[in-house]
Structures
1.
Amino acid sequence: MKQAMSKRKRCAIVGIGNRAHSWVGGIVERHPDVSELVGLCDLNQDRCHDINAAYGTQAAVFADYDRMLAELHPDLVVVTSPEGFHREHIEKALDAGCDVATEKPLCITLDDAAAIVAAEKRSGRKLFMAFNYRHIPLCSKIRELILGGAIGRPVSMDLTWYLDYKGHGASYFRRWHRMMKLSGGLLVTKASHHFDLANWWMDDVPEVVYGQGRQNFFGPGHNPFVGERCSTCPHAKACAWYTDVCVVDRTEKLSQELGYRVKGVRNYVNDACPFGPEVDIPDTMSVQVRYRNGGLLNYSLNASVPYEGWNLAINGTKGRLESKITDNKPSPGWQERFQITGPDGRVLKGKGYAVTDWPAEYGVHVMPHAGDDYEVRLPNIAEGHGGGDWKIFEAALADRYPESDALSVFANAVSGAFSTAIGAAANASILSGEPVHLTPITTDWTN
Ligand SMILES: NC(=O)c1ccc[n+]([C@@H]2O[C@H](COP(=O)([O-])OP(=O)(O)OC[C@H]3O[C@@H](n4cnc5c(N)ncnc54)[C@H](O)[C@@H]3O)[C@@H](O)[C@H]2O)c1
């Protein structure tokens, strides 16, 4: 391992929600020898105070981001705010002379992406793009197989991603993600992981994007009952979509389940009506991408599926590989809290409903043109996004990278920009009905 730091890295975090808790754990529990938490910023300052109380830290608390940068001059700013604020938070931190570690997605529009890439160059600071999926053993192995020539040059990829309709998937339509201006829709907030993987596996640069998207399941007109939030909804008894995630006497337990070591979720809207008028993101999407060297990606994302997972097939000039992941286990705090009731109020499903466990292993099936098929088995690490979080914290917080990174597993601003570029271009294509050419906007990014 390369070791770089001599003093502790002074870290500040903006957006103190679910994901910030993982980073705080990374700083104060995994890497306290080389990093320290000096600042916390959230519009809701209670959430910052809760962190100090729960982790025994004395980080300064701010509602004003500019003030935090000016007063603390942190070495590293960790961006865990909603995606619609990423550009502002990243650009300001870089221009203030700080390095940045940002959660995916980098940002939500092509303009944002170009501005961030320019800000990184201008400032001379470094942006660490936290694409943790790349570190999942199965995803790294697919990259290793491709770079090793197992299927030749990839020429087409079919990637189909499913979100479960009642738990984690539905949660995107119950929180801020349901609004395009805050999340960029699922093609940005969720698919940024998937487009990054596709770019990385294809080992190429996307050039043309065409997208289709519809609201077929969530959003206005898809449920007989509409309210503001389940917790205040007059239709709670009758609605099959009622969820009790915000019932007051459960908040403490729920908070723990969600990863908050604090009492109560604190004024957080996570039970907004998934059929309300604010829902302006599609739930059914299909995207085609043409890459510079001619490779083609067919991608689809659907949020009305009974389970969560993917189907992947990559065809190369010398063979094909296939993989399938089924994450049927509901996330604690979401699916187990969800209940489906009949018209008489009787609980039909949910809350303790039996669920399957995560499989212990996943496989890649490789079919070379010359030679026999074979299967590669990889462990399924259930914690920390397949173990990816630990590697990301080690790199971003402790500056510890492996001696050799033959797979280029650590992502930078340009990888983040290309991933957002596909999602943002697909969103634009959905509106215009036309394909979007990413060049010349992205030409600078590869120079
Ligand atoms: N890598 C992963 O696997 C992964 C997993 C979950 C979330 N994320 C990403 O992490 C980020 C945060 O997601 P989350 O689930 O923690 O969200 P969250 O809703 O739990 O937390 C967001 C926090 O940001 C605060 N906030 C909103 N606007 C702000 C502003 N202008 N300035 C300061 N604070 C503001 C909110 O009050 C809230 O506390 C998102 O970009 C999300 O996509 C990544």
2.
Amino acid sequence: MGLLLASGLNALAADKPDSEDLIAQGKYLATAADCGACHTSPDRGAPMAGGYAIHSPLGDIFASNITPSKVSGIGDYSEQDFARAVRDGINKQGQHLYPAMPYTSYSRITDADIHALYAYFMHGVQPVDTPAPQTHLPFPFNIRASMALWNRLFAGNTPFTPTPGVSDDINRGDYLVNALEHCDTCHTPRNALMGQDNGKALSGGSLGSWYAPNITPDRNSGIGDWSDADLTQYLMTGHVSGKAQAAGPMAEAIEHSLQYLSDADIRAMVAYLRQIPAVDTGATRPRDGYGQPSASELSLRGQTDNIDAGWQVFSGSCANCHQADGQGNRFYPSLFHNSATGADRPDNLIATILYGVHRNVNGEEIAMPAFGPQAHFSERLSDQQIADVSNYVLKNYGNPQLSVSADRVRVIREGGDKPLLAKITSPASLLIAAIILLLIVVLLVVLITKKRRQHGAK
Ligand code: HEC
Ligand code: HEC
Ligand code: HEC
């Protein structure tokens, strides 16, 4: 099993502490775990020096400087301190980290891999003495100790151990998907207290503006109709013609992490995803199974009465790339047989129009312009215009059962539906917050007494 996790290599490297090999292995693991995506500021920030703001429904959370600087980074962390921060979400000062740092998944990282990661962060990363900005969340979330209660309920995985009786590939895939690559933090739904609902693992989760779809093997709701080759190509490049393209947070995962993984690791993830329990989330047709070319754009040209407002936007802002019939071409994808237009919710279609597509893969830049607030080269579309063009696209090329209101576009523009936890920050709802906190405390007491009893029984 040692070699299976590539961690067995560490046993050999252990005689030669922090050898080049161990540091290189730690670097690969840091890429697979995508540490740099959050801990490096996108405006040409120094690697791992922090500053990237993670927009949570509760407010911005800044990723820390995790360079080996003794002033502003983690230069004085021992390997044990490092393991505690990465796996348990507790920093050297004993403060609880917010789960924007995906320690709930990283808790499954093996000791051997923590050892290699530590060697890389201490000896493979340049120290940077500039401190990262501070995070200020509203009450009661500024009380970091409240995370201790949350952890009791939702965190606390133990390091990964292979499941007996399944192939090495599937075990390696399990480790990559649920520990290092933390696919689950985005693709698994969350409950009202923002804990992962692992009974429905990987069956789809909202990330605010974007929606990470169901990737279980269910034929209609998930990706059961994708071939192994489709899935492999998507994870390596973010593009499968006539199926799906990766934008938003998925594009980031591919750009910073997945494109650098070895073929064997991609194969392992595909093998694992093929055999997880299928979860039916109610779709009646696969997301990539909707629509066909439509001549509607052409037939509406020249019309002077009752001009379709969505057609107008489509004609002016979309058809030049995606073509009048929505078929696209060698460079631009079709809008039918496209998982963003055939999904059972319009979130990713709206978010794509607002924020565009940006993906740098194999040195090639794939870009669709944004039509929202960050639009540079294209016109800024209003909520109503985006609703109109979405409805036009859905009706002609996508899932015609959906319709989009300007109000829905506004919600997506403002970062998506707020979970219950975030809604309770208004002063009027503090009472509810207090009751929920009280409930958590009660639960906690029950849990602790249970633990005590178990210990007592020993
Ligand atoms: C999805 C974003 C994200 C990823 C991926 C991520 N982190 Fe973090 N990390 C954060 C955020 C945000 C914080 C600060 C949390 C807070 O302030 O409570 C943090 C805090 C930390 C800290 C605590 C630093 C301190 O002294 O406060 C360490 C150590 C750390 N991360 C290491 C890592 C390592 C190693 C990886 C990769 C294995 C990683 N992180 C991946 C977002 C991320
Ligand atoms: C930071 C959040 C995030 C992480 C981490 C993440 N995903 Fe995604 N994923 C998304 C979002 C959002 C989409 C939708 C992208 C779009 O439609 O442009 C997506 C789309 C997908 C799709 C395409 C589904 C479809 O029907 O279009 C697959 C397959 C997928 N992800 C697999 C994975 C796997 C496997 C991992 C881990 C290796 C992973 N994702 C990690 C957010 C994430
Ligand atoms: C300048 C060319 C261009 C224009 C204009 C353009 N797109 Fe795109 N579109 C692209 C490219 C490039 C992609 C991504 C291809 C890839 O990922 O491989 C894309 C992807 C998409 C996707 C799939 C996104 C996903 O997450 O799966 C949708 C839906 C889409 N465009 C709709 C639109 C709509 C609606 C408009 C008009 C408001 C529009 N596009 C205008 C070039 C364009």
